[in-house]
Amino acid sequence: MSSGLRPDPSVQRRRLALFGTRGVVGRCRDFTHEALDDWGWPRPAGPGADRGDGAGERSEDVLLLVSEIVTNACLHAGGPSELSLEQRGLRLRIEVADGSPELPRRRPTAGPAQPGGHGLMVLERLAGRWGAERRGTGKVVWAEVLRPGP
Predict the structure, then answer these.
(1) pLDDT digits (tens, 9 = 90+) for 68-126
(2) What is the C-alpha to C-alpha distance for residues 20 and 9, in angstroms, rounded to an integer?
(3) Backbone angles phi, psi at 39, to 5 degrees
(4) How confident is the model at residue 44, as a pLDDT?
(5) pLDDT (0 to 100) of residue 21
(6) Cβ atoms of 25 and 72 closer than 8 Å
(7) How far apart are alpha carbons 150 and 128 in whole angstroms?
(8) How far apart (Å, rounded) are the C-alpha atoms in residues 55 and 5?
(9) Can you say whether residue 124 is alpha, beta or left, with left for phi > 0 and alpha for psi between -120 and 50 degrees?
(10) CATH homologous superfamily for 13-43+54-146?
(11) Does the predicted TM-score (pTM) go above 0.90?
């Protein structure tokens, strides 16, 4: 017997199961880039190029958010177990699951010009919203961004 409920065609999802830390950031960026292409997001302009409309910058922001969240899972949680992307209308939600129940927290840094310790600042600047929640014995760190207009 059918419930009469149909999947919402404006919702698109992709999931990538992950194991370990070697090469995982690059795999996640490639996976995300392919999903954004398939979903019709503007392509990043590339180094030194100027599109003039800034639309590709939002795609680049998404790739940077994925890199930061996955890198943090590698550094602080033994590596991610899954990357999930969900586009619902104009909103894209990025989720990275890992096996550590410890929620993200700011760590002291040597200064804004020094490398390391800036992952949460990147999330705060680029994501419309972000957060973390415990799931099972681990957690999910998520970020949401709006798709650029036509």
Answers:
(1) 999 999 999 999 999 999 999 999 999 999 999 999 887 666 566 655 666 788 888 99
(2) 33
(3) -90, 5
(4) 72
(5) 86
(6) no
(7) 19
(8) 35
(9) alpha
(10) Histidine kinase-like ATPase, C-terminal domain (3.30.565.10)
(11) no
Contact 95, 80 (CB under 8 A): no
The answer to whether 87 and 147 have CB atoms below 8 angstroms apart is: yes
Asked if the model's pLDDT at residue 65 lies above 80, the reply is yes
Phi-psi region of 46 (alpha: psi -120 to 50; beta: other; left: phi over 0): left
Closest CA to 31 of 46, 47, 15: 15
Report the sign of the C-alpha dihedral through residues 22, 109, 77, 95, in that order.
Answer: negative
* Distance, CA of 128 to chain centre: 12
Extents of the domains making up the chain: 13-43+54-146
**Per-residue pLDDT reduced to its tens digit, 25-60:** 999 999 999 999 999 998 876 655 455 556 678 999
57 neighbors 66 (Cβ within 8 angstroms): no
What pLDDT sits at residue 56?
78
The CA distance from 114 to 107, in Å, is 13
